[in-house]
Specification:
Blueprint (H helix, E strand, L loop, with lengths): L1 H10 L2 H6 L5 E3 L2 E4 L11 E4 L4 E4 L5 E2 L1 H9 L3 H12 L9 H26 L2 H9 L4 H6 L3 E3 L5 H8 L4 H6 L3 E2 L10 E2 L4 E7 L5 E8 L8 E3 L15 H11 L2 E4 L2 H9 L5 E3 L7 H8 L4 E4 L5 H16 L3 E4 L8 H7 L1 H9 L2 E2 H12 L3 H17 L4 H15 L3 H10 L16 H29 L5 H38 L3 H27 L1
Parallel strand pairs: 12-13, 12-14, 14-15
Antiparallel strand pairs: 1-2, 2-3, 3-4, 4-5, 6-9, 7-8, 9-10, 10-11, 15-16
Helix pairs in contact: 1-4, 3-4, 11-14, 14-15, 16-17, 17-18, 17-19, 20-21, 21-22
């Protein structure tokens, strides 16, 4: 496949590819445009035909034709490879066998036929139609989302699919039928029976699975999802992503809800940048897919204790991945679907007034716990670990100030406890390792330095292509100075930390001369830091 990738890169010019999505303007030997990945008025997105790469100096987006296609279309690498291979006229040789591809095609075909079967049965079944209407869905919405009904019979779908020529094993592998392991002589029977059916789609709009909502209290569980198949993994699939991806990119944030009805009613109300997990917990794969479209998300889970706990876990995971996370405060006891059905404006206002995750969850604690000492303990246990997941020191400072104002605890004390706070345990979803506080801080400083150095290298490469006398060149030159100052600030802070340890040792040994010398060095370092701060203000 490596040869195929190289061939595709040779045949597709990145400027030509990008110009199919956004308007490019000539800028020296490169091109510039308003970045398609974040909102901006002044172009900071550059495309270099010479290096066949793009870079945004506003949001940091960068890469090649594959990265650009992945982010614009919300695809993984394989999906982008398929799109670009077709554009380049390249026949990609996958490592998977032709047999595997043929098997997937068969599954896609049988799932499409099943969708049509469910759609027709819905139009013929008043009970199921009335249920969807009672939940506030319009006829157009039901049609557009291809909703259906699985009859209250054991083998109606299975028999239908067999009669039109689909193989028994394909039907089973597609997750539409299963056999009784204790009595295989009875033959396969339908997985979905007497349920409202919600088809799940991949990013290109193909049906990959189903979720069925029970229409009978005795027909447990309430929601039943397709099992994992060759084309469906619940840890990766996001309901509505195929329809929401353009809006997420345009609005620069996504909204995460839990259920299908929450999602569909949100889109029906005009809030079309929402996606759902279809009743399963959000995973790293889910959030990684959304991060390709926008770095900002709003969690809009049920307005009860269970929804709050789910939002807390999802917030910690999203923050650990570097996402900017807000949480919507829904009316007590209501889910998004209930809220929208009552009044669409309440739903929209809940999203507009959503709060950053640490502030939202602190507000919940503050409301429940009136004892100041106990509230402080809860802040130490629940809020500080969440703040520690945030990579930006400026953002951390904002939340520390907020906590100080609302609890009466001094900022210095909060900072001390924040340094000692442990990163939340998020099992098997990301690469954060539990370290001692001192080691943890060192790892964060190293990663910050590496990010600055990487960006500085990229800026200097672009400066070679753009004239410093042009507006873009002046912007880059200013950013270069800021990055150099940031590195200098890190050096000074590291030096100050080292001097503080040396001073403590000197004081312990009662070496007055050494104490005096180190104290003088600390004063000089503080003076340099103040001078650097003044220089930053001028820039």
């Amino acid at each position: 496949m490596g040869g195929d990738v190289d061939t595709i890169k040779e045949r597709i010019d990145i400027a030509e590819l990008v110009s199919g999505y956004i308007k490019l303007q000539k800028a020296g030997t490169s091109f510039k445009a308003n970045c398609p990945f974040h909102n901006e008025k002044t172009p900071s997105f550059f495309v270099s035909p010479a290096r066949q790469s793009f870079y945004c100096f506003g949001c940091g987006a960068k890469g090649d034709i594959f990265t650009f296609t992945e982010q614009m279309d919300g695809l993984d690498f394989r999906g982008a490879l398929k799109v670009l291979a077709e554009r380049a006229g390249v026949e990609v040789e996958y490592r998977t066998s032709d047999k595997s591809k043929a098997e997937k095609d068969k599954i896609f075909n049988v799932l499409e036929e099943a969708t049509k079967f469910f759609e027709k049965n819905l139009s013929d079944t008043k009970l199921a139609s009335d249920y969807l209407v009672s939940r506030g869905l319009s006829k157009d919405t039901v049609k557009n989302w291809r909703l259906g009904y699985a009859p209250n019979e054991w083998r109606s779908l299975y028999n239908y699919l067999q009669n039109i020529g689909h193989d028994k094993e394909v039907i089973i592998r597609a997750g539409l039928a299963k056999t009784n392991e204790e009595n295989t002589s009875q033959g396969p029977y339908d997985v979905f029976r007497h349920r409202a059916i919600f088809p799940l789609f991949d990013t290109s709009g193909k049906v990959i699975a189903f979720s069925g909502r029970s229409l009978d209290k005795e027909n447990a569980p309430k929601y039943l999802n397709s099992p994992a198949t060759l084309v469906f993994s619940k840890s990766q699939a996001l309901y509505g992503l195929d329809r929401a991806k353009g809006s997420i990119r345009k609005k620069d944030y996504s909204i995460l809800v839990e259920g299908q009805l929450d999602l569909i009613l949100s889109h029906q109300a005009g809030v079309d940048n929402a996606v759902a997990s279809s009743g399963t917990a959000f995973t790293r794969d889910h959030l990684d897919r959304l991060k390709k479209l926008s770095n900002r998300i709003i969690l809009a889970f049920d307005g009860d204790l269970a929804g709050e706990k789910a939002a807390e876990k999802a917030s910690e995971l999203a923050l650990s991945l570097g996402l900017e996370v807000k949480v919507a405060n829904l009316p007590e006891g209501s889910d998004p679907a209930d809220t929208i059905l009552k009044d669409e404006n309440i739903w929209k206002e809940a999203l507009r007034s959503s709060l950053p995750a640490p502030e939202f969850f602190f507000g919940k604690l503050e409301k429940r716990e009136k004892d100041a000492r106990k509230l402080g303990k809860l802040v130490e246990k629940k809020i500080l670990p969440m703040i520690k997941l945030i990579g930006s020191a400026i953002e951390q400072s904002h939340f520390v100030s907020m906590l100080a104002k609302r609890t009466g605890i001094k900022e210095e004390i909060i900072w001390t406890d924040l340094k000692k706070a442990r990163i939340p345990d998020i099992p098997a979803v990301h690469n954060v390792v539990s370290l001692e506080p001192e080691k943890e801080e060192k790892v964060q400083n190293v990663s910050k330095r590496e990010r600055i150095e990487e960006r500085l290298t990229e800026v200097r490469l672009w400066l070679k292509e753009l004239s410093e006398s042009d507006q873009e060149g002046r912007v880059l030159k200013k950013e270069e100075s800021e990055l150099v100052n940031n590195l200098l600030e890190l050096d000074l802070r590291d030096g100050l930390t080292r001097l503080s340890f040396e001073l403590a040792r000197a004081e312990a040994s009662k070496d007055e001369e050494l104490v005096k010398s180190i104290a003088s060095e600390i004063q000089k370092t503080h003076a340099k830091m103040r001078s650097l701060e003044e220089k930053k203000k001028v820039l």
